[in-house]
Amino acid sequence: MRRLRQGNIAVNVVLLLYLLGCLAPSLVSSISVSSPSEVHASKGDTVSLSCSFTSTSRPTSKMTVDWSYRPQTGGPPQTFFHFSSRAFPPPEGQFAGRIRWQGTPARGDASISLINATLNDNGTYTCSVRNPPDVHGSPTSHTVLTVTPKAPSIRFSDVAVLLAFILIPSAVVTLILIGRMFCPKKQHNQSKGYRSPIEVTEGEEYGIHPPGAKVKRATCCDLYLMCIHGSDDEEEHYNLKKQPPTDEGFAESQC
Q: Has UniProt tagged this entry with the keyword Disulfide bond (predicted)?
């Protein structure tokens, strides 16, 4: 009977140890990492690659974060960023000088930012977190980044320069056209008003003055001769009007 009882105890111990061995990994496999499945950005943008984790153990100095990148064209992933108590950005390579640590481990944040994104950055980014003793579960998460060319944008300064190049020449051309519309008329009128000394306008030979012309005042001699011959002598009066103009002082002396 004693041997039977001892055998049962041994079997129970073995079963208990087996159960503990099976359950032990599940007790420490509580870490979970999550990140957006897709991220879209434009060329030249600063891209935030988010990564959050939960763990039953409080993050300590033993906690590590690794970011790796696999190009869109394929190939093995390459680790480019490491965190362990402090950040270790890539000293060389594609991401040199373009990675900033944005995480706060105490809050379960292991995010980074990618500065000045390029089309060559397209691919899959993997965030891996280890926080001993939580080393099982889902310690990794993947994000597919898609960078597209930036759409051209018009700035206010560009619009101002464009308007200046269009409006100023247009205004100058308009002023020139308006000037040409009025200047020929003015020149034409001036050419009509100017006459050479030998020209005789129509009607002057008959004593008819054109509109706007200055009529020469009659001198004393003219008035005297008119009084002598009489106002009814139209022929003599006509001849007097055709006489060339004389100096007024000389006419007075003749009278």
A: yes
